[in-house]
């Protein structure tokens, strides 16, 4: 089983202690997002976990727990865009996260340290030129610490509409995507870094940018030395090439408060979730209720 930690919230940045407690007890409870009284019991025993895949905007809180992860194959996807507080309200500065990612890479190796520059959105201040400057700067800091960069372009989810105050924020046009891809490709070649897209409809192979996957079966095979039998994850978007995994996060629990986030409706729900978080609980948020039905996840 591949465990996603997590597409739904930033567990490494906000709930690292809880996750390590779950590894110690070797199981976790996850509420079904569509049926709140249904809970899955997911084994985290080392023999049941093929790989852990971490998603984060700040790996620093996880670094102190690296010794506790030694029984598990894992890698880390870390997003650094450098957007301002108007877009990523509570995310640490790009420089802070760059320093943490470099520290992480030194500890676990650059194959297992992947930089995400996404989503790429356009506004009056976040122009094509802005993205080229940001990408160039971040890559110049990270190039010796990573092998791969994942990019994707902004999709305007319904959940974003109330959070985006700046009316100029929009999806890039195909012309802007082509410009960005061409410049990013040139910069990546300069530093010997591979760029791949995530769940994108655009064919950018003429720039040397291939479609990729974040939960990557080939990478997991390289890390573990074992053949991955997983299929494409049918629960993700049709363009997503990730292999199937079990996600242990919960929606509306991330306090980063990014305006483009599909997993959070608003910051008040996230604050309420944090207030109901107990690092000792088998659930990320709250406690098991008498009306809950718990089933083992096969």
Low-confidence stretches: none
Kindly state the number of beta strands. 11
Biggest sheet strand order reads: 9-8-7-6-5-4-1-10
- SS field, number of helical segments: 8
Distance between the termini: 9 Å
Supply Rg. 19 Å
Into which percent range does the helicity of residues fall? 25-40%
Structural class: alpha/beta
Strand portion:
15-25%
Q: What spatial form do the alpha-carbon principal axes imply?
A: globular
Average pLDDT number: 94
The main sheet comes to: 8 strands, parallel
Q: Could you state the order of secondary-structure elements as H and E?
A: EHHEEEHEHEHEHEEHEHE
What does this 3D model show about the protein?
It is a single chain. The protein is of the alpha/beta class and 298 residues long. 28% of the residues lie in helices and 20% in strands. The strands form 2 sheets. It has an 8-stranded parallel sheet. It has a 3-stranded mixed sheet with strand order 2-3-11. Helix 5 packs parallel to helix 6. The radius of gyration is 19 Å and the shape is globular. The mean pLDDT is 94.
Topology:
Blueprint: E1 2-5, H1 11-14, H2 16-25, E2 27-32, E3 35-43, E4 51-56, H3 60-63, E5 74-79, H4 94-108, E6 113-120, H5 128-142, E7 148-153, H6 174-191, E8 194-198, E9 210-212, H7 217-224, E10 246-247, H8 267-275, E11 293-296
Parallel strand pairs: 1-4, 1-10, 3-11, 4-5, 5-6, 6-7, 7-8, 8-9
Antiparallel strand pairs: 2-3
Helix pairs in contact: 5-6
Outline:
With 298 residues, the protein is α/β, with parallel strands linked by helices. The longest helix has 18 residues. The protein is globular, with a radius of gyration of 19 Å.
């Amino acid at each position: 089983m591949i465990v996603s930690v997590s597409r739904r919230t930033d567990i490494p940045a906000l709930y690292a202690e809880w996750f390590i407690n779950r590894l110690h007890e070797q199981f976790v409870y996850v509420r079904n997002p569509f049926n709140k009284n249904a809970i899955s019991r997911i084994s985290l025993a080392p023999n049941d976990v093929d790989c852990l895949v971490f998603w984060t905007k700040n790996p620093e809180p996880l670094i102190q727990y690296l010794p506790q992860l030694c029984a598990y194959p894992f890698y880390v996807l870390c997003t650094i865009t450098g957007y301002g507080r108007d877009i990523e309200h509570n995310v640490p500065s790009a420089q802070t996260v760059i320093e943490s990612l470099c520290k992480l890479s030194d500890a676990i190796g650059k194959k297992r340290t992947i930089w995400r520059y996404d989503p790429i959105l356009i506004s009056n201040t976040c122009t094509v030129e802005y993205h080229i400057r940001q990408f160039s700067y971040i890559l110049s800091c990270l190039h010796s610490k990573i092998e791969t960069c994942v990019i994707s372009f902004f999709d305007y989810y319904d959940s974003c509409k109330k959070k985006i105050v700046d009316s100029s924020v929009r999806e890039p046009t195909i012309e802007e995507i082509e410009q960005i891809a061409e410049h990013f490709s040139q910069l990546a070649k300069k530093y010997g870094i591979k760029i791949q897209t995530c769940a994108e409809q655009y064919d950018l192979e003429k720039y040397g940018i291939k479609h990729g996957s974040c939960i990557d079966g080939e990478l997991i095979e390289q890390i573990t030395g074992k053949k991955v039998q997983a299929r494409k994850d049918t629960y993700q978007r049709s363009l997503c090439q990730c292999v199937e995994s079990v996600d242990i996060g919960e929606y509306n629990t991330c306090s980063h408060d990014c305006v483009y986030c599909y997993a959070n409706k608003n910051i008040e729900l996230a604050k309420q979730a944090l207030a109901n978080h107990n690092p000792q609980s088998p659930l990320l948020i709250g406690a098991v209720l008498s009306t809950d039905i718990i089933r083992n996840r096969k």
